[in-house]
Amino acid sequence: METRDHFKNGAKPKSHMSRKLKYTYMSSQVLRDRNGNKIGEIKEEGGVLVIRDKNGNKKGSYDPKTNTTRDKNGNKVGTGNLLTTLL
To answer: Are 51 and 39 in contact (CB under 8 A)?
Structure first.
């Protein structure tokens, strides 16, 4: 979920809270099959995206800095975000 403060005429936020919440990003995505059953989840952990199956077992990770996807043992799967192929 992303929230951004928008102000008319370039006005600044009036409270420290609105500045603190200026950019908030969702760090978790639940993956579901066509019937709505949870099959896995992708979470951000220390700047790296990690995919886990429905039981919470780690299946692999994607590092956007290196643009590399790795399996649960650290073996390179490929270039780009290929996380969903690991389920």
So the answer is: no
- The total number of structural domains in the chain stands at 1
Residue 3: inside a domain: no
Residue 38 has which token pair?
């949870």
C-alpha R_g of the chain: 17
User: Residue 39 in contact with residue 56, Cβ under 8 Å?
Assistant: no
Give 10-15's long-range contacts (Cβ < 8 A, gap of 24+). Answer: none
- Asked if residue 2 belongs to a domain, the reply is no
- For 29-77, how does the pLDDT look when each residue is reduced to its tens digit (9 = 90+)? 999 999 999 999 999 999 999 999 999 999 999 999 999 999 999 999 9
- Span between the terminal Cα atoms of the chain, in Å: 24
User: Model-level pTM greater than 0.85?
Assistant: no
